Amino acid sequence: MIRFTTTLLAALGLCAALACAQTTDGGLTLKQSHEILGSVRLDDHTRAAMNAVTNNDIRSLALNRDVVAVEDDIFSFSLPTKGITNQESSGRCWLFAGLNLVRQDAAKKWDMDEFEFSQSYFAFWDLFEKSNAFLEYVIKTRERDIMDRELSKQLEDPVGDGGYWPYVVSLVEKYGVVPKKVMGETNSSANTGRMHAILTALLRRDAATLRSMAASGKSAEELRAEKAKMLPDVMRLLVINYGVPPTEFEWRTTDTTGKASDPVTFTPQDFYKEVVQVDFSEYVTVACYPNQPFGKNYSISATNPMADEPDISFINVDAKTMKDLALKALLDSNRVWFGCDVGQESYSKKGLLVRGVYNYEELFGLELDMNKPDRLNYRSQSSNHAMVLVGVDIVDGKPRKWRVENSWGKDRGDDGFFTMSDDWFDEYVMDVIVPVRYLPADVLAITKQDPIPLPIWDPAWESLRMK
Hints:
By secondary structure, this protein is of the alpha+beta class.
């Protein structure tokens, strides 16, 4: 509980009284604003806080040393994980996490110390598919008013780094995977902002062209013919930024003893089938979205990055069920992809995701707490980062904390690994991806339901998509 000073409580009382004295249209007079300013008394606590905050980083001042000091890096169960990936200045966490699910198995198969798939190969085809899906959406909605809410939402962000687990599934099944040595990072793949701005400008121009053609009476077939002429420009832009993605490559490794293997020629699709040997389509999205009834299957309109794929869907369960499924899969030696709000109570320098790690309330003398449904409805929480569960610490039969493989390089956290407290999991983890075989009968039945459609502006989409 926050301890307010007497002066601060008096100031709050004055502000409440002034709120009742606003103008009839809800505005504030200059006099009222000055009176409210005068209600902030610079007592010792407020003056000390002002002097500290105006000269220092807020997070450093609010860091709760008592919480940081008691955290340890001991886990009762942990999967062996070699190497940490780095998404650098990009929002590709969802695809890094997706590929991190299986890269350890690939390293084991090839008897290598470390191994990475090419994230830039994956991102190249992701952006190309998103571009086609956006232009196709423009064609399908050509008769809508430009101010249509769903259309406006799409125009705000035609393409970008953001994504979600089903994107991983669709892309891997169609384009396969390649080793990072075959298609490495470029300046643009690691720092995507400027390239995306140019691609977005190109696609918005093309959208305007397609809608203008539609307004002049051109048919959908004629618009798609025009779209076919536009896509080579998209491809050209991507090739210049990423290089040419391979359609075939020769793969050769040295094992842990230094012995070289014979060269083998693969297509990206064959490499996925023969090396990864994991059916990503067998994974299911289990989310805890308390703003809609649990025990239901939901879909979100216009959210798939491929024009010929169905809308993104998820099954909605309570937090305990979601956590139990994650634990069950993890303890059976499965890495677990999850989406969360990493901006909440996160001390990235030490790799801590712990409730109470910052104490902003004491620093500022304010109450800031909201429950999870309110945080979602009022856009104070969203899923903005994907990572992988690789360990758990079970004490007295219950999880106490979780070991997390991140994709921010080795300089943050414990050589790239984060520690997540169990109560942080409850509040800020939004969804997990687990093989369908771990679902109990009642949860499995939810997947058989026809999805209930939700609009793209529903908080659920912001609660699932990585941005």
